[in-house]
Amino acid sequence: MIRINLDVMMARRKMSLTELAERVGLTLANLSILKNEKAKAIRFSTLDALCRALDCQPGDLLEYTGD
Predict the structure, then answer these.
(1) For a pLDDT cut of 70, what percent of the chain falls above it?
(2) What is the b/e burial string over 18-42, where b = at least 16 CB atoms within 10 angstroms of the residue's CB?
(3) φ, ψ for residue 43 (rounded to 5)?
(4) CATH number at residue 45
(5) Closest C-alpha to 9, from 66, 65, 49
């Protein structure tokens, strides 16, 4: 299983969901799907935008748990 640690990175950067949505150009609904780990896939362009906005690496957002 791949976990999406978006909420962790947002907390570290003290960034709200609304602010992040504006920075990456996603709707709140789509960003919430990612944050709540309901997404089945993520585009590289979205991952790139999230990494830019949160000043992090893809490995900071994605974690393989082996479940």
Answers:
(1) 100
(2) eebbeebebeeeebebbbeeebeeb
(3) -75, 150
(4) 1.10.260.40
(5) 49
Name the pLDDT band for 66 (thresholds 50, 70, 90). Answer: confident
The domain total for the chain is 1
Question: Are 43 and 25 contacting, i.e. CB atoms less than 8 angstroms apart?
Answer: no
**Considering the entire predicted model, what is its pTM?**
0.92
CB 16 within 8 A of CB 10: yes
For 13-32, how does the pLDDT look when each residue is reduced to its tens digit (9 = 90+)? 999 999 999 999 999 999 99
Full domain range(s) for residue 29:
2-64
